[in-house]
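Q: What does the predicted 3D structure of Integrase catalytic domain-containing protein look like?
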Amino acid sequence: MNAYLERFMRSLKSECLNKMIFFGQHSLERALKEYVAHYHFERNHQGLGNQLIDPGEEVGSIAGKVECREHLGGLLKYYYRDAA
C-alpha cells in the first residue's frame, strides 16, 4: 500500500499543492476535495492501462462537441465529448 500512497502524494504535490497558495484550512480542504474527485473520476491512471477507473457515459463517443471541465480555477482540466 505504501507505493500507492507515495504515487498519490507525488501526484497531489506536483499537480495541485505546489501550484497554489492557501489562505487557511478551508481553502486547503476545498482544494484537496476537488483534487481527489478529479483524481478518481477524471484523471487517467498509469497503473490501470491509462484508462479511467469509472468512465462516464460520454467517454469514448465519436460524435459530439469536445467539452472541457475545469477544477480549481482551471488548474485541473478534463476533456470529453458531449453526447450528440
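A (community wiki): The C-alpha cells above were generated from the sequence. The mean pLDDT is 81. The chain has one domain: 2-81.
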